[in-house]
Design brief:
Blueprint: H1 18-26, E1 35-38, H2 45-51, E2 55-60, H3 64-78, H4 116-135, E3 138-141, H5 149-154, E4 158-160, H6 183-189, E5 196-200, H7 209-222, E6 226-229, H8 237-249, E7 254-257, H9 262-266, E8 271-276, H10 280-288, E9 293-295, H11 302-312, E10 316-318, H12 329-341, H13 343-359, H14 365-379
Parallel strand pairs: 1-2, 2-3, 3-4, 5-6, 5-8, 6-7, 8-9, 9-10
Bound molecules: uridine-5'-diphosphate-glucose (UPG).
Length: about 375
C-alpha cells in the first residue's frame, strides 16, 4: 500500500522528418503543403515550415489562461522572480498576467514536481511554446470568449475556436486511445434524469493503491447511480482485483467501463455531475454540456483549470488531500452531495452551456474566429 503515483513524463521530439516530408510532398505533382497547423509544445515545426516559406499557425489544446502563463515565463525570468530553470529566486508571491491570482513559484507548472526529468520536460514545453509564439501571427485555442473574457481581451490576436468536442469529430476511426464501450449509453438510457455520477480521469492519471481504495469506497458511500471509467493503467493489478467485489455490490445501480464515449455520456440527460481530473478537454466537454464538476486535479494545468471552474466560473467544487496526502472516502461523499445540492452551481453551468452552444453557432464568437482565420489564410 502507499505506492507513490506515477507522474507521466512527456517528451517533445524535434520534428526531424518534417523537412524530408515537406520536400517529398512539395516536389510531387500532387497537392502541396502550403500551410501548417502545429501544437506549439512540439518544438520546431513552425520553424521548419518557415524555412520552406510556408506559413503556419499554432493550435493550443489547453486553456487561454494557461497559455498566458506559459507566455509570461520569460517576463518572470527578466523580473528576477525565477531563473531560467524555473527555480525561485525571490521568496514572495509573483504577480501574474491579467486576472490570474498571485502565485508562489511552487504552484507554477514547472514547480509541481521534484522529479528533475519531468521538470526538464515541462521547461522544454514552455520554451517551445514561446518560440512558436514568436514565429507565427496565428494562434488558435480551444476556448471561447465568454469562458475567459479577461484573457481574450488581453490577447486579441489569439483566436479561440472552441469548444471543440470529441463528439463532433469528423471521420472514422475517431482517434480514440482505447475502444469505446458504448454499452454505457444504453445503460444510461435506463437511468433516471440527472441521477448518475460520472467519474473519469482522462488519458494518463494514475492512482496509488491507498487513493484508489478511498475513491472506490467514496463512490460506494455516495450510494447513487454511477458510471466510472477505469482506464487500463489507471491503477495496479491489486486494485483491479478489488473491483470485482465492488462491481457486485453496485450491480443494481453502477457500471464500470474501460473507456467511454465521454462527450456523448456528458450530453446524456441522466448525468448529474462529473468527477474529473480537470484535463482541459474534459473540463470543456463537461461545461459545454451543462454538467457541474467535482474537480480533482492531478498535475500540470489541471490545478489552474480547477481554480477557474471553482473560483472564477463557480460551476464546480474541488476536493483537497488530507494530511496523509489522500482524498478521503468521506470527503468524496460529502463533496458529491454538496455539489448536487447546490442550485447556484447548476443554474450557472446551464447558462454556460447555452453560451458555449451560441459561440459555435453562426455569428458566435468562435464561429466568427474560424471564418476570420480561413479568410486570413486564403489571403496570405
Ligand atoms: O473514457 C473516456 C475518458 C476520456 N475520454 C476523452 O479523453 C480526453 C481526455 O482529455 P483531457 O480531459 O484533456 O485529459 P488528458 O488526457 O489528461 O489531457 C492532457 O492534455 C490536456 C490538454 O492539453 C491537459 O489539459 C491535461 O492536463 C493533460 O493531462 C477527452 O476528450 C475525453 O472525452 C474519452 O473519450 N473516454
Amino acid at each position: 500500500m502507499g505506492k507513490q503515483p506515477y507522474i507521466p513524463v512527456v517528451s517533445f521530439p524535434e520534428p526531424v522528418h518534417l523537412e524530408e516530408l515537406i520536400m517529398k510532398v512539395n516536389s510531387s505533382n500532387d497537392e502541396k503543403i502550403d500551410f501548417v497547423v502545429a501544437d506549439p509544445s512540439v518544438g520546431g515545426v513552425l520553424e521548419v515550415a518557415e524555412k520552406f516559406g510556408i506559413n503556419g499557425a499554432t493550435f493550443w489544446a489547453a486553456s487561454l489562461s494557461f497559455l498566458s502563463l506559459m507566455l509570461h515565463f520569460p517576463k518572470l525570468v527578466e523580473a528576477g522572480n525565477i531563473n531560467e530553470n524555473g527555480d525561485p529566486l525571490k521568496d514572495e508571491k509573483m504577480k501574474l498576467p491579467v486576472s490570474l491570482p498571485a502565485m508562489s513559484t511552487i504552484d507554477l507548472l514547472w514547480g509541481f514536481s521534484d522529479d528533475p526529468i519531468t521538470k526538464k520536460a515541462m521547461l522544454a514545453f514552455t520554451a517551445n511554446v514561446n518560440k512558436a509564439a514568436k514565429v507565427t501571427k496565428w494562434m488558435l485555442c480551444n476556448s471561447f470568449y465568454e469562458l475567459e473574457p479577461a484573457f481574450h481581451d488581453h490577447y486579441p490576436n489569439i483566436l479561440s475556436v472552441g469548444p471543440l468536442l470529441a463528439s463532433e469529430r469528423l471521420g472514422h476511426p475517431k482517434g480514440q486511445l482505447y475502444p469505446e464501450d458504448s454499452t454505457c449509453l444504453s445503460w444510461l438510457d435506463h437511468q433516471p434524469v440527472q441521477l448518475v455520477i460520472y467519474a473519469a480521469f482522462g488519458s494518463s492519471t494514475t492512482f496509488n493503491q491507498s487513493q484508489f481504495i478511498e475513491l472506490l469506497h467514496g463512490l460506494e458511500l455516495v450510494d447513487r447511480s454511477l458510471l466510472w471509467v477505469v482506464r487500463p493503467g489507471l491503477t495496479d493489478e491489486f486494485c483491479i482485483s478489488s473491483l470485482e467485489g465492488f462491481k457486485n455490490r453496485i450491480a443494481q445501480h453502477g457500471k464500470i467501463v474501460h473507456w467511454a464515449p465521454q462527450s456523448k455520456v456528458l450530453a446524456h440527460p441522466s448525468i448529474a455531475c462529473f468527477i474529473t481530473h480537470c484535463g482541459w478537454n474534459s473540463t470543456m466537454e463537461g461545461l459545454s454540456q451543462g454538467v457541474p464538476l467535482l474537480c480533482w486535479p492531478y498535475v500540470y494545468d489541471q490545478f489552474h483549470n480547477a481554480n477557474h471552474v471553482c473560483d472564477i466560473l463557480k460551476v464546480g467544487l474541488r476536493v483537497n488531500k488530507d494530511e496523509n496526502g489522500l482524498v478521503t472516502r468521506s470527503l468524496i461523499k460529502m463533496k458529491v452531495q454538496e455539489l448536487l445540492a447546490d442550485e447556484g452551481i447548476r443554474s450557472r453551468v446551464i447558462k454556460l452551456k447555452d453560451v458555449a452552444q451560441k459561440t459555435i453557432s453562426e455569428g458566435g464568437s468562435s464561429s466568427k474566429n474560424v471564418e476570420d482565420f480561413i479568410n486570413k489564410i486564403k489571403s496570405s
